[in-house]
Amino acid sequence: MQHFASDNYAGICPEALTALLAANDGHVRSYGDDEWTLRAADRLRDVFEADCDVYFVFNGTAANSLALAALCQSYHSVICHQLAHVETDECGAPQFFSNGARLLAVGGEQGKLTPAAIVEVVTRRSDIHYPKPKVVTLTQASEVGTVYRPDELQAITATAHQLGLRVHMDGARFANAVAGSGVSPADLTWRAGVDVLCFGGTKMGLPVGEAVVFFDRRLADDFAYRCKQAGQLASKMRFLSAPWLGILEGGAWLRHAAHANAMAQRLAGGLARVAGLRLLFPVDANGVFVQLPNPVEQDLRARGWLFYTFIGAGGARFMCGWDTAPETVDRLLADICQLADGA
Length: 343
Ligand SMILES: *Cc1c(COP(=O)(O)O)cnc(C)c1O
Description:
10 strands; 3-stranded antiparallel β-sheet; Aspartate Aminotransferase, domain 1; Aspartate Aminotransferase, domain 2; binds pyridoxal-5'-phosphate; alpha/beta; globular; 41% helix
């Protein structure tokens, strides 16, 4: 049975699995000095149309934390949205890996940061007793399924850079943001002023792994040591990188993301037609948030559906993945219609 709890409930997509199996052939150099890893990094440079520096790590928490640690000293602070994964779901890892840098969480409509909020938090204090703001981190697509447009990104990064801050992007669902916006990967990142991207592979259909992409190579100084010390340097690196090659070559990454987004649109369209239900956010990517009456939520669970209600600003979250079938969406919709009708 398929579920809507998270896009990481799905298995490995065929293109990634084929590449993984193809990489399982003979002996090759370890620790990333292999042709799979070199080619996957080159394909990422093609995707971003930039000579960026690329590192493959095991998961998103490590990618975010190590990237943020590379951007600041222990006495610095990182400005994030109050719903940001780094703030709510990483168990303090950004502080841990940066040896104490603090997160400064701010509000913002639809899960998005604004230039005004950044200015407010940076100018609030300038004394020696406060951790000095050094980084802005934003999530693309956001934790509530919205996507920053290039003009929104440019406004944020211009403000950040004027204030002497670096910009990090948590792209656990970057593929969905690209597919949903129709904007090129370059225009959603470095051309809009993003310094470092954590590009999520897991939720896109890889078995495991995220890519840390430095558009400003100077920021990646000694980053390999940071990964190694944190236990994030894979010795059989080819099995992290080959699946990336599988989904990048031939464009499967964008096709799968577009499919997941389309399934979210199908679900949102159906929910909008159910009397009494309210969508909580625009559906820009692959997540749908809806306020369900309590009995409907409970009865859905009783029928076996798995979904989260603790993420974002409340409500039920339904995530679609690369393999979410239209029939699954329609079965969920039929159950919700039936239950909402009786509620
Ligand atoms: C899933 C996710 C991550 C990565 O989580 P891991 O479980 O550490 O791989 C990071 N940011 C966001 C917004 C996510 O949804």
